[in-house]
Specification:
Layout (H helix, E strand, L loop, with lengths): L10 E2 L6 E2 L3 E3 L4 H14 L3 E4 L14 E4 L6 E5 L4 E5 L4 H10 L2 E2 L11 H6 L16 E7 L5 E5 L4 H7 L8 E8 L1 E2 L2 E10 H6 L1 H7 L4 E4 L5 E10 L9 H19 L5 H13 L4 E6 H5 L7 E9 L3 H14 L9 E6 L14 E9 L12 H21 L9 H13 L3 E2 L9 H7 L3 H11 L8 H7 L1
Parallel strand pairs: 3-5, 4-5
Antiparallel strand pairs: 1-2, 6-7, 7-11, 8-12, 9-10, 9-11, 13-15, 13-16, 14-15, 14-18, 17-19, 17-20, 18-19
């Protein structure tokens, strides 16, 4: 069967921060069709980029050459209940994998914030969540198969092609096409989430205690204040319960917050008040909920965002946060719209893992940008009505004062944050925006040269490179 490409396709990532117009767009359904695309690329000297869910808020998925969307290669290939392992095609979305695992009484031991991402994409950029006993998501992979630029399939694991395996677990899309992945799972489990208010001083003074108390501990610090929301997630036998509330979660927590953030783009000092107001409104009470693990580990990213997320040595957590806080206090013109999310991850031995040989703290900063809200079938009639009413307000405001999707200045905040992260020995999340180049990565990663040698051997002509990766490797 011959695979057919399409011209005129526009790719845009989830946050709409980057986009591109690939020369040809392909959606193969089998390995042979992927090979055909690679053969055509070699003949025409074109670059190739494989994509999945498009959630990376950087340009890592962009190309002006051939783009291969792997979404139709999404089958479950094997379930080994005795070993608690599952083998899948790389294009499967984790949200579909979660449901399938549940049918077999299994679960992934950890997940990122969203599951609208593919299995191959998750390991491509080193997706993580939190839990000092848990590594980044690629540490859950026990085997994979890789299709190289020359059309050769390489089977990789701890015992077969180990060097390529350790490189492929955070592959950046530059080693080849990930065809299949075998995940190490655990028996299905439920989690209880408990969130409660605290202060930055209390959390930093008792960080070790918090890490011991909860398996999936993280916290949110609200810049321009001392306020912190602590989140514990732990195994439970309790039946599912929900603390969701339409009025507080959407009418207040989404629509009102977006409106106030938009207003703050004209009056930046309002951000100080907004952060305190929303902490007081939504985070001053203890809140508990429980459900099957993936429904607790995943949470809704309601706003389109500009994001940076660096991993730093865990012992530098307090130093980095306090310096970030001091920077904001001494520069009142620099504002931070959203809470700084702080998570903790176990070290590993994956060549380009931000947690390579270091237990790490991930410090995630976010800047607000335009949001285009999408409804699912689960949203209520009231939810839709409220949204349409606010949209009418947005249209009026647009004609009075400018576009509702007005971009916001973020450079001062971002550069100051990056400076602090580099100072304490940090490494940027591969899927997120950053200003690092090869010189930076050579200092950050002891095995960077080893990865480069593997990449050059597997892809000597640079078929899988793009503008993002050129900054990484050249």
């Amino acid at each position: 069967m011959m695979v057919h490409g399409h011209k005129g396709f526009k790719f845009q990532n989830w946050a709409k921060t980057y986009g591109c117009y690939p020369e040809m767009y392909f959606q193969p359904t089998c390995v042979e069709e992927v090979r055909q695309v690679l053969d055509l690329a070699r003949q025409q000297n074109k670059r190739v980029k494989a994509i999945g869910g498009g959630h990376s808020p950087s340009d890592i998925a962009c190309t002006d050459g051939f783009m291969i969307h792997m979404g139709k290669m999404n089958r479950i290939l094997k379930v080994d209940k005795e070993k608690h392992q599952i083998t899948v095609e790389g294009g499967i979305l984790l949200k579909d994998l979660n449901v399938e695992l549940s049918k077999h009484g299994l679960a992934l031991p950890n997940l990122g914030a969203v599951s609208d991402v593919t299995a191959a994409g998750v390991i491509g950029t080193g997706t993580h969540n939190t839990g000092i006993k848990h590594g980044i998501l690629p540490t859950q992979v026990v085997a994979l198969t890789l299709l190289t630029a020359e059309g050769t399939i390489i089977e990789c694991s701890e015992t077969s092609n180990e060097d390529i395996f350790k490189a492929s677990l955070v592959h950046l899309g530059c080693l080849g096409i990930i065809l299949t992945i075998t995940f190490q799972c655990v028996p299905q489990f439920h989690l209880q989430q408990t969130s409660f208010p605290s202060t930055l001083k209390e959390v930093l003074d008792n960080l070790d205690s918090h890490l011991r108390k909860s398996e999936y501990f993280r916290f949110l610090w609200f810049p321009h204040s001392e306020n912190v929301s602590v989140i514990y997630q732990d195994h439970t036998n309790k039946p599912p319960t929900s603390a969701a509330n339409w009025f507080w979660d959407y009418a207040i927590g989404f629509h009102l917050l977006e409106f106030l953030l938009w207003v703050s783009t004209f009056l930046p000092r309002l951000v100080h008040w907004i952060n305190r107001f929303f902490f007081w409104l939504l985070f001053t009470s203890k809140v508990e909920s429980s459900d099957i693990s993936y429904k607790i580990l995943n949470y809704e990213c309601r706003f389109k965002q500009y994001v940076q997320d660096w991993a730093i040595p865990i012992e530098k957590t307090a130093e980095a946060l306090l310096e970030l806080k001091a920077m904001l206090e001494s520069n009142p013109h620099v504002v931070a719209h959203f809470p700084v999310e702080v998570r903790f991850v176990k070290g590993d031995d994956i060549l380009l893992s931000p947690c390579f040989q270091k237990d790490s703290c991930y410090m995630n900063i976010i800047m607000y940008r335009k949001c285009s809200y999408k409804f699912s079938d689960e949203h209520s009639f009231l939810d839709r009505c409220f949204h349409y009413q606010t949209e009418m307000i947005h249209i009026v405001l647009k004609h009075l004062t400018g576009p509702y999707g007005k971009d916001v200045p973020r450079l001062d905040y971002w550069l100051a944050y990056e400076r602090i992260m580099k100072k304490v020995g940090g490494r940027p999340h591969w899927a997120k925006a950053h200003t690092c180049t090869r010189k930076d990565f050579e200092k950050m990663y002891p095995s960077f040269q080893k990865f480069c040698a593997i990449r050059e051997k597997l892809d000597p002509t640079g078929m899988f490179l793009n503008a993002y990766l050129e900054k990484v490797f050249y």
